[in-house]
Amino acid sequence: MSTCLLCEQPDETGGYLCPGCTKATVGRLHALPGLYDELLPFLAPGSSGSSGRRPSAVSAPLPVSEVVLSLRGPGGVVGVVEDWLAAVRDARRMQAAQPVGSVESRLRAAVAGLSANMAWIAVSWPDAGTFAEEIRSLERDIASIVDPSDRGDRGTRLGACPAVDVGGVICGAILRHHPGTKAVACEWCGCTYPPATWPGLKTWMDHDERAEEQWQSAS
Prior knowledge:
By secondary structure, the chain is mainly alpha-helical.
């Protein structure tokens, strides 16, 4: 018996990942291409994942969200997945794969390559825990922006987080109020909004929504 390197629970299979964490990791890998596609609408101003304090007004949003652009770029989601596939192929003494095509096709190919090696990763690879943890973190990071419908315990949807960083970039992650909690907290940037700020919070959200609509109609 061993201990799973992801959930840290006893694993009777004696591998590095238990069957449950192996299955969950495969599911997270398969979800990445779809989550990548869902990031596209969040390139618009008002949908970034940056943190910071709210200024008195926002007059000129950046043309794109830098956080989302980074995730969708060659060094973002696809870079993480391709790097792990390269590490697996190197550990197995397989010929290195040469990425070709668009970022979308490269991501799908890398996901397929890792999925095909998951049985070996779970049983034989000492880096399986680090790999599975990074894939889980990557999926959570994207999910906090795109707010997919299959997330559990979603709470009441309030709107986009209006926090703005020092560069004037609006966070834009979805804010939700969960039963039993007093303050509303952004899962992406960490900004919190106690009840006393909620009237102003609604005003900020409405302002940002109007600013985004004006930007989209002018583009």
